[in-house]
Amino acid sequence: MNIISKLKHIYEHHYKKLLLIPIIMVVLAFLQIGLQVVNTGDFVNKGISLKGGSTITISKPLLLTESELEAALKSEFPTADITVRTISSAGKTVAMAIDSDAQGDEVPALVSSLTKLTSLNQEDYSVEIVGSSLGESFFKQTAIAMLIAFLLMAIVVSLYFQKLIPVAAVLLAAFSDIVVTLAIFNLTGIKLGTSGVAAFLMLIGYSVDTDILLTSRVLKRQDGSLMERIYGAITTGLTMTAATFAAILTTLLLVNNETVKQIMIILVIGLIIDSIMTWIQNAAILRLYFERKEKKVKA
Fold it and tell me: How far is CA 11 from CA 5, 17, 266, 287, in A?
């Protein structure tokens, strides 16, 4: 028995045990998010655009590297949350940005320290400030937007399938995908910005797409056995995922932009988790659903 045959045997005959994998992942994700809230007060690492702060953009080339400048500023302001990043265009570094939680009177102090470290003139940099109330307001609005998107998706799925268990399985898979992806994203230490929120919205759509593919193949088609229909959905779904991965990896290799990178990183994590939630969790629930229906028919 070769490896593929062994995997098929496990997938077909031990699917109830495999269901423990997504369950454990979701439980661990909730634990991580809970610890995140306890330690930071937020369920996600928020960037400047979502929590407020300042961004100082330097257009002049510096002698200091990104890490050297960040270390120097952190030694001057040990309690501040400071991140230094480069801004690139066509593969060349065109500017350097210093993101921090500094607001109000803290910003001039940070600018003063920066000019001493780098000998900058006023025309060499620009300062953008996002107030904490504005950042918090935007974060609430984006959270509401995600909730509305999820609810509208739930309504569409419910109207299409009109069966409680399959609909619940689709929604559970999408919810699990978002929660686990968020927990893993937190572990990366990357701060979530507005682009990241857009990536999570995209992920909701992609997750539901694969789950609807599986559920419609299983429920709507009558040709072949249940497992043949599931394998047909897996072949189509994994082909879609592979094509998406190819596009994402190409973007990561060719585009050196922090905003694009954050979107692509979230999508990579989400696609991997979605494969588990769709082809293990959702597929197992659908199989249990059909087994229960068969028992009722025989009874």
Answer: 10, 9, 28, 12
Q: What does pTM read for this prediction?
A: 0.82
Residue 256 phi/psi, 5-degree rounding, is -105, 75
Do residues 170 and 157 make contact, with C-beta atoms less than 8 angstroms apart? Answer: yes
Provide the pairing of β-strand 53-58 with 92-100. Answer: antiparallel
Domains of the chain: 3-46+133-298 (1.20.1640.10), 53-130 (3.30.70.260)
* DSSP track, 186-221: HHHTPPB-HHHHHHHHHHHHHHHHHHHHHHHHHHH-
Distance from the Cα of residue 34 to its chain's centroid: 17
pLDDT of residue 34: 93
The long-range contacts involving 256-263, CB below 8 angstroms and separated by at least 24 positions, are 256/88, 256/91, 257/87, 257/88, 258/85, 258/87, 259/193, 259/195, 260/195, 262/190, 262/192, 262/193, 262/195, 262/196, 262/199, 263/195, 263/196, 263/198, 263/199, 263/202
**What is the pLDDT at residue 89?**
63
What CA–CA distance (Å, rounded) separates 168 from 85? 42
User: Pick from 8, 17, 93: which is nearest to 59 by CA?
Assistant: 93
Q: Is 221 left (phi over 0), alpha (psi -120 to 50) or beta?
A: beta
d(CA 92, CA 59): 13
Say how far apart CA 108 and CA 114 lie, in whole Å: 10
Token pair 């572990």 is found at 187
Q: Mean pLDDT over residues 105-134, rounded?
A: 74
Q: How many helices (H) and strands (E) does the chain have?
A: 12, 4
Which residues does 53 contact at the CB level (< 8 Å), separation at least 6?
81, 99, 100, 101, 102, 103, 129, 130, 132, 135
Distance CA 273, CA 80 (A): 34
